[in-house]
Amino acid sequence: MNQRYSPSDVVDILRSNNHTEINNVTVFLYRFFKPIIASHIFKQGGNYDDAKDIFQEVIIIFFRQVRHLKFEAKSLKEMEGYFIQIANNKWLKKKEADGRRFRREQEYLTQKNVYTQELTSSAILENEEENSSLPNILERLGEPCRSILMAYYGEELSIKDIALRFNLGNPDAVKVRKFRCLEKLKTLLLKP
Amino acid sequence: MNPKDDYQRLETIEQYFNGSLSVDEMANFENALKNDFDFSKEVSDYQKLTNMIKEITIEQNIIATLDKLEQEEPIIPLKRKTPFITLFPYLSGLVAACLIFVLYASFSVIQLPGSENDLTIVRDVDVSILSPVEKKVFDNFYAGQSYLAEGQFQKAVQSFQVVLKNNNLRPYFKEATQWHLVLAYLRSGQIQEANHLYDELSSCKDCVYPIGKIDKAKLWWQILWAKIF
């Protein structure tokens, strides 16, 4: 399949909840833009894994911007520029983070005792930042809550289908379970 | 809105967003949305939460699709620009410059220093009162230059050789004649002779005849070219 989409098609589909079409658009974005982003990252001295990670982040950021109505494109060229801009920012952040980590390691090796306290707190802060994001909260929700909520609200499956897919028995029980899971998620979001 | 219990309230909120409430229930719901701040916030939170779950689900599907594509259709890393490719514009410029120089050296005219000065520098005498020997030397030198200019190279060789038979030449004039002879040899196809004399002149340490470096290089190049082809 080598389907080509116009920028407005891409935007419309990503704003919808049509999983099949979103999947097709993802394939299109990968085939069309990945070589461009990858060669850009290679030029900056990155390797294949860097290009893979950066491209994934670019697509997710793009998806969020589209969903939150923060992106409108008139041409694929414009999209390319936008992607390269995000990739650049991500690459710079990665390099800065690598540099910081390297400096911290060096400092740690030379002045182990002095910085122990500081390192611990900064590591905690970083972890906090990571943990507070919704995907991480969903992870912390555990199974089968995560799967039930994602299947019901994300994939829009019926309670009956969810009961069958995850082998959860009575649909009514799944319904109650879903309610409890949602409440638990709300609590986690309020008090992460 | 009558909040019977949390579970029931959530059911109603979901039915509202599904569009499965009856007309009366809908009116009731919307009325509660306007008048009950807590309920309105609960509905808003529900909507935000479910939207976020939707987005995360799609994001995870996108990541899964990208991972699958990375496995099935890996983008082959473009080879990093090798130094040759990076230097290509500079190298091609250098090659072009060399080519231009070669063409220039091969086909441009070799200008040996002006002979009009030779007379006054070598011989600080009045031309009109030259001795017959001196006159013969000068005549042959200028004749050689004329033959060279006219393309009669063999005659030019002969004229310069006559000049050089005189053992009493001043160094400047002797060298001037020899350089002219090199050129005459080259033009007349006597490459070995030209090469031999050129080497002899090039290796001299106290030469006085001021032949320019570029002309010297052009002469060397043309002899080399003639030797190869």
Features:
heterodimer, A: 192 residues, mainly alpha, globular, B: 229 residues, 10 helices, rod-shaped
- Shape verdict of chain A: globular
**What number is the mean pLDDT of chain A?**
80
Helix content of chain A: over 70%
* Main pleated sheet of chain A: none
SSE pattern of chain B, N- to C-terminal: HHHHHHHHHH
**Can you count the helices of chain A?**
9
Helix content bin of chain B:
over 70%
Protein name (chain A): Sigma-70 family RNA polymerase sigma factor
Organism (chain A): Arcicella gelida
Keywords (chain A): DNA-binding, Sigma factor, Transcription, Transcription regulation
Family (chain A): Belongs to the sigma-70 factor family. ECF subfamily.
Structure, briefly:
Chain A: Belongs to the sigma-70 factor family. ECF subfamily. Chain A: InterPro entries: RNA_pol_sigma-70-like, RNA_pol_sigma-70_dom, RNA_pol_sigma_r2, RNA_pol_sigma_r3/r4-like, WH-like_DNA-bd_sf. Chain A has 192 residues and is mainly α.
Task: Describe what this molecule looks like in 3D.
Chain B: This is Tetratricopeptide repeat protein. The complex is a heterodimer of chains A (192) and B (229). Chain A has nine helices and no strands. Chain A has helices spanning 7-15, 19-43, 48-67, 76-110, 112-131, 134-141, 145-154, 159-165, 171-190. In chain A, helix 2 crosses helix 4 (76-110). The N and C termini of chain A lie far apart (43 Å). Chain B is mainly alpha-helical. Chain B has helices spanning 6-18, 23-35, 37-72, 83-107, 116-122, 132-150, 153-164, 171-188, 191-202, 213-228. Chain B is rod-shaped and about 140 Å long. Chain A binds chain B through residues 17, 19, 22-23, 26-27, 30-31, 34-35, 38-39, 42-43, 47-48, 51-52, 55-56, 59-60, 63-64, 67, 134-135, 138, 149-150, 153-155, 176, 179, 182-183, 185-186, 189, and chain B through 6-7, 10, 45, 49-50, 52-63, 65-66, 69-70, 73-75, 77-78, 80-81.
How are the secondary structure elements laid out?
The complex is a heterodimer of chains A (192) and B (229).
Chain A lengths: L6 H9 L3 H25 L4 H20 L8 H35 L1 H20 L2 H8 L3 H10 L4 H7 L5 H20 L2
Helix pairs in contact in A: 2-3, 2-4, 3-4, 4-5, 6-9, 7-9, 8-9
Chain B lengths: L5 H13 L4 H13 L1 H36 L10 H25 L8 H7 L9 H19 L2 H12 L6 H18 L2 H12 L10 H16 L1
Organism (chain A): Arcicella gelida
Family (chain A): Belongs to the sigma-70 factor family. ECF subfamily.
Protein name (chain A): Sigma-70 family RNA polymerase sigma factor
